[in-house]
RNA sequence: GCCGGUGUAGCUCAGUGGUAGAGCAGCUGAUUUGUAAUCAGCAGGUCGUGGGUUCAAAUCCCUCCGCCGGCUCCA
């Protein structure tokens, strides 16, 4: 079924839900009820506060409306007429919507006594909606503005067939199983605690192993690409944040006092990198300079937005600042973009959604530089054959930017790399270089990340693989399961050989049965479980069980080592 | 921050005003085990926090905190 058809189905479902709510409750004022990916919602303003039990009641009512097979009738009326109609009905939000509509004629849809303003189109009658489910309740500000009243939103989903609905509901379950917060605990990767503080992750040994693998990869690749590594302090005096402007714009920072001096915890690494730049006179001959730091920053995110590793208060950016000549912008952006895609691909992300944000109404810098930088970003995208969308006017005031969102195994999008040109900070910090003309010129600054934040990326990575990491990323690559105590010696020999080859292995020494050891290793999503008993010890071989269930007997240790090393070196994501 | 939900053992959850429970995990013991859970026993909780109502509160009310689903914002 094509997308438009589904859209119509869901839109009609939203209308049926609105009718059901209107019939069930008094004084309901309708907000808007659009379709969204995989479903629909409708916003309501009413005295009654919905509870999860109400969803069932509303669904029941919707079924009645569907059973009656009420026709949906389109009418076109003038804006004025519509305004009168909705004013009379006390539909204040619809009247508010009408204020913003310029067309002289609007369409309304009637189904029985229920009327809603709507562009349409709709199904012919309510009976054509068959497979739907109301999912959850939420609060939402009218028109998304927190100065407006908050409405109650009901989310639902609707599909053409029962099979598709069931598939979708199963997918929701699958998503829940892959939730990085759940896997983080189950795989003993990280945890967060009320005692430590909200939005602050603590890495456990396995999580730290995974993080170091990611960080080592980043360091190596940055080195290859001509970045120089720097380190900056976590706290810096408030004055530098005044120079950067973060202080005045009330950036959500943490400030505190040391012996009468105000300090702030860094929410960004740029000022320190600029400081490195300014520590000596710079010549055009030495540009571009690329300073890289795995910089841990803290931002005071509002409590309601925190979410596992994906939205935290303390995180580490794979942050770099490139200082270059205006005519180097293009090559630098091209290189940065290639780098970002290379890294994402290495970690198994093959699909992206790329956004180019251009000059907003209020901006700093010259028209010419904006033009040049925006063109550079475009050219870099096109040279990389990346399809992208332009978000006109959505750039930050200091420069245009590229945002890359990655698509995971379940088709969800995650904020990843960003590349931003900055005309503001070089100005504010009065950065200069000496040109061939022996005069002082302003360098251009590019902020860029490859993965974004290590925390967020790890969260996305955990969900992408559902915790079943490819060999090179798996915190534990091999679990050795001796059948009885008498095999512990042989197991230790194997462990030592694996460890000597930089393979991350453990022995399951518990006095448990083999089925129990296998089950535990399987639940931990360990790539290989090596079972050793009398037969193996005698023949000096291994029985190797892969995570996907296949069992190989009589394997030589050397073969296994080579196989694992090969997978690690190629960063293969082939299942074992 | 705002709206709604929610908080009981390490984890998953039961317990609606009258003596805090289960499974898994943990510990102890027995079992020496061949590809997704061997058996038994033991231990573990000021029921998120502070206050209130009551003869009596995990249970009812209020405060604060955390978490979950959204809104808004972002790496």
Q: How are the SSEs ordered, and which strands pair?
A:
Blueprint lengths: L2 H22 L4 E2 L4 E2 L2 E7 L6 H17 L4 E6 H10 L3 H9 L4 E7 L2 E4 L13 E11 L8 E10 L2 H17 L1 H7 L3 E2 L10 E2 L1 H20 L3 E2 L5 E3 H7 L10 E4 L2 E5 L4 H9 L10 E10 L15 E11 L4 H18 L4 E7 L9 H17 L4 E4 L9 E7 L5 E10 L2 H4 L4 E2 L5 E2 L2 E10 H12 L12 E5 L5 H13 L4 E3 L6 H10 L4 E5 L1 H6 L2 E5 L4 E5 L1 H13 L7
Parallel strand pairs: 11-15, 17-18, 24-25, 24-26
Antiparallel strand pairs: 1-3, 2-3, 3-8, 4-5, 5-6, 7-8, 9-10, 12-14, 13-14, 15-16, 16-23, 17-19, 19-20, 20-23, 21-22, 26-27, 27-28
Helix pairs in contact: 1-2, 3-4, 6-13, 10-11
The structure holds one RNA strand of 75 nucleotides.
Given helix and strand content, the structural type is alpha+beta
Assigned CATH superfamily of the largest domain: Bira Bifunctional Protein, Domain 2
Q: What integer is the average pLDDT? A: 92
Separation, N- and C-terminal Cα atoms: 36 Å
In the CATH hierarchy, the third-tier topology of the largest domain is known as: BirA Bifunctional Protein, domain 2
How can the largest sheet be summarized?
A: 8 strands, mixed
């Amino acid at each position: 079924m094509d997308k438009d058809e589904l859209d119509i189905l869901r839109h009609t479902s939203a209308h049926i839900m609105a009718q059901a709510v209107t019939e069930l409750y008094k004084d309901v004022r309708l907000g808007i009820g659009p379709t969204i990916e995989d479903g629909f919602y409708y916003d309501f303003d009413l005295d009654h506060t919905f509870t999860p039990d109400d969803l069932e009641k509303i669904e029941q009512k919707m079924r009645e409306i569907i059973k009656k097979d009420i026709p949906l009738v389109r009418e076109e009326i003038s804006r004025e007429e519509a305004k009168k109609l909705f004013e009379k009905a006390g539909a204040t939000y619809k009247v508010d919507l009408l204020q913003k509509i310029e067309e002289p004629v609007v369409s309304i849809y009637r189904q029985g006594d229920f009327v809603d303003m709507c562009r349409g189109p709709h199904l012919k009658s309510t009976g054509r909606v068959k497979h739907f489910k109301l999912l959850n309740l939420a609060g939402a500000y009218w028109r998304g503005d927190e100065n407006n009243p908050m409405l109650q939103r009901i989310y639902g989903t609707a599909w053409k067939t029962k099979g598709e609905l069931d598939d979708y509901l199963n997918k929701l379950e699958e998503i829940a199983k892959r939730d990085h917060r759940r896997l983080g605990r189950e795989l003993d990767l990280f945890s967060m605690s009320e005692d430590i503080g909200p939005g602050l992750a603590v890495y456990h040994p396995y999580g730290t192993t995974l993080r170091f693998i990611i960080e080592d990869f980043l360091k190596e690749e940055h080195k290859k690409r001509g970045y120089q590594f720097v380190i900056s302090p976590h706290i810096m005096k408030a004055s530098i944040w005044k120079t950067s402007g973060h202080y005045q714009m009330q950036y959500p920072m943490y400030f505190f006092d040391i012996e009468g001096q105000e300090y702030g915890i860094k929410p960004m690494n740029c000022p320190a990198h600029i400081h490195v730049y300014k520590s000596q006179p710079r010549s055009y001959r030495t540009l571009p300079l690329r300073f890289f730091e795995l910089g841990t920053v803290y931002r005071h995110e509002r409590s309601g937005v925190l979410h596992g590793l994906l939205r935290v208060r303390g995180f580490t950016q794979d942050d770099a600042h490139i200082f270059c000549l205006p005519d180097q912008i293009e090559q630098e952006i091209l290189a940065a973009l290639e780098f970002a895609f290379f890294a994402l691909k290495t970690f198994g992300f093959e699909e992206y959604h790329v956004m180019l944000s251009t000059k907003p109404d209020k901006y700093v810098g010259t028209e010419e530089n904006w033009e040049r930088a925006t063109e550079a970003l475009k050219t870099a995208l096109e040279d990389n054959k990346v399809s992208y969308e332009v978000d006109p006017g959505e750039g930050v005031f200091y420069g245009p930017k590229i945002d890359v969102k990655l698509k995971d195994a379940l088709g969800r999008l995650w904020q990843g790399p960003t590349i931003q040109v900055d005309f503001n900070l070089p100005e504010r910090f009065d950065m200069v270089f000496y040109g061939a003309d022996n005069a002082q010129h302003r360098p251009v600054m590019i902020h860029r990340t490859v993965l974004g934040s290590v925390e967020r990326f790890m969260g996305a990575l955990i969900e992408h693989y559902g915790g079943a990491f490819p060999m090179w990323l798996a915190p534990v690559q091999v679990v050795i399961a001796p059948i009885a105590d008498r095999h512990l010696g042989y197991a230790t020999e194997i462990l030592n050989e694996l460890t000597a080859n930089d393979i991350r292995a453990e022995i399951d020494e518990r006095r448990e049965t083999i089925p129990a050891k296998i089950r535990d290793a399987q639940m931990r999503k360990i790539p290989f479980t090596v079972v050793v008993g009398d037969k193996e010890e005698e023949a000096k071989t291994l029985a190797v069980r892969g995570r996907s269930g296949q069992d190989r007997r009589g394997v030589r240790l050397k073969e296994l080592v080579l196989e694992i090393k090969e997978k690690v070196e190629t960063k293969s994501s082939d299942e074992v």
